[in-house]
Description:
With 99 residues, the chain is mainly beta. It has one helix at 10-17; strands at residues 22-30, 37-45, 52-55, 67-70, 83-86, 95-98. The chain contains one helix and six strands. Strand 1 (22-30) and strand 2 form a beta hairpin. The N and C termini lie far apart (51 Å). The relative contact order is 0.14. This is TGM1 glutamyltransferase. One of its GO terms (molecular function) is protein-glutamine gamma-glutamyltransferase activity.
Amino acid sequence: EETVTMTVAYAEYGPHVGDQDALKLTAAGTVEETGQVVAKELRVRLHTPELTLTLLAPAVVGQETPVQVVFQNPLPDTLSGATLRMEGAGISCPKPYQM
């Protein structure tokens, strides 16, 4: 029995992920004595950053309410072209905020 550890850097898999939130890893090998091929697949779900929402003023019916949205980009690439959408009771369609 032997344990092998491999590290896959974001630079290697990042360009291939696209809009997917998972990676499919496959390990395969051959048993030398028998020639038998063994393989195993594992689907790994990537974690998305957690959003924190904070009201910056009291919420009053009929008035705008400022909300602070905080999240941390865990990737080494600069975030660009992102859009946040705010939904809630009384909002007829999601309100987009271009970042």
